[in-house]
Amino acid sequence: MSFLKGRRYRIKTSMLLCMLLGCASPAAAKEPLSRQISVPLDYKHPGLGRAKLTYELGAPFDPRKRSVIVVADGQQFYVQRGAAARLQRELFGPGVNVVGLITRGTTPAFVKSALGRGGKADWLRAWRIFDSSQWIEDVESVRRAVAGKAQVMLYGRSGGAYLVHQYLAVHGDHVSRAFTQSPVNALIARNLRIKLDQFWDSLGRTDPSLQPVLVNSLKLRPQERTRMLLALQRQHFFVPQDQEAAERRRLIRAFASGDDATYGQMVAKYQVNDVLKLLASDDAIPETVRVFELIGPSGEFESPTAPVSPLIDPQKEFAAPLLLLEHARRIPAPGFDLGAAHRLTTEVFILAARQDEAVDYRTSIALAYVYPRATLFIANDNHTFIKLSAAGEDGRLLRAFFAGGIGSPALNAELEGAESYRWRE
To answer: What is the DSSP letter of 333?
Structure first.
């Protein structure tokens, strides 16, 4: 799940692009076409003012081709200036127009507008500027700018995939096809009684003796609690899956024994201090609102399910101002409209991973059944689809789906070619 689990992408965007697409030399990349549109700070209250959003084309626009809008959300940063050309070249290919929307969450004018007196975050204003309805309408504004009345196609992963599905619930008739990878959906997780944060159960399966060690050490070092939980939560992004249990044990033992040299090295490797620095800045305001909306429907902010929750506990701390507003009924509880999907003719491809550390694959199964025209591929892979990406299969599936759609010979051929990567129980 991208919330803070995807946070390292903000710190080193090139790392995510390398992970997604493979790296090309900076000198080889050409600056994509860049355009701006003016949108309201708050679509519901347009009198509050406007600011400019930037979207970039991966290549010169060809009106004969269909367009794909690449959707990222508040805590994702893989759509940065200059990224659209690489996405076009390495992932989507020349058959479509690639449109990368640089979000309001990474546009200074929007962040500045969420500040109140003394330059501090005004969280009620921040929610109004960065709640999901604003991101949805930004995508719609770009769609109109690019395609007019015509339909487009959408692509998103993790939190961005969630935003794609949120957009479909409102403007699905404007989308012919949507491809989403590891789509977060906390409401479905809640309905299925699936925990978003499964760390405690996983630790109990791999080494239950570490559970009391961790609880006691966190009590003894309360000033380090948030830093340690972030290190545990981010660890799987930096450690191969077959080494994760051993590295988790090493981190907990170092923390509990006071081996601050080892603990500090691991914290630095996982870029925890950079994350904390960022979260203390105004740049974290959009992310905090989106995290509130991503996790809130699960109910886990309100009802803790484990003594230690490295995902939920820090995020609850960061989202505290929004939770207070929700409790005071000044803002609504975040949710998701599953019913809207039943009425769509949009073709939806959902790519999930059985070993996904962030998004439980079972929620993707349920999500796929919500849409009348959907196909689901569960890979024997992890959240970043490291195996599929290394083989180029994710890109081939994506291109075949956008070219021909569900049931097309092109997609059927690619599904057959990717069969060895499919998870089988």
So the answer is: P
3-state secondary structure 8-57: HHHHCHHHHHHHHHCCCCHHHCCCCEEEEEEEECCCCCHHHCEEEEEEEE
Tell me the C-alpha distance between 401 and 348, whole Å. 9
Helix axes 272-279 and 260-269, enclosed angle (nearest 10): 60
Residue-wise pLDDT for 134-178, tens only, equals: 999 999 999 999 999 999 999 999 999 999 999 999 999 999 999
What kind and span of H or E run contains 250?
Answer: helix 244-257
Q: How far is CA 101 from the centre of its chain?
A: 15
Asked if residues 347 and 354 have their Cβ atoms less than 8 Å apart, the reply is no
Written as six digits, the tokens of 198 are: 């499964």
User: Which residues contact residue 52 at a Cβ distance below 8 angstroms, ignoring those fewer than 6 apart?
Assistant: 36, 37, 38, 39, 107, 109
Number of residues that make up the chain: 425
Determine which helix (DSSP H) or strand (DSSP E) holds 100, and give its type and residue range: strand 97-102
Looking at domain 8-190+336-421, which of 3.40.50.1820, 1.10.287.1770, 3.40.630.30, 2.30.40.10 is its CATH number? Answer: 3.40.50.1820
Residue 213, number of CB atoms within 10 A of its CB: 16
**How many Å is the Cα radius of gyration of the chain?**
21
User: Domain coordinates of the chain in residue numbers?
Assistant: 8-190+336-421, 203-327
186-225 tens-digit pLDDT: 999 999 999 999 999 999 999 999 999 999 999 999 999 9
Q: Which of 75, 82, 93 is nearest to 55 (CA)?
A: 82
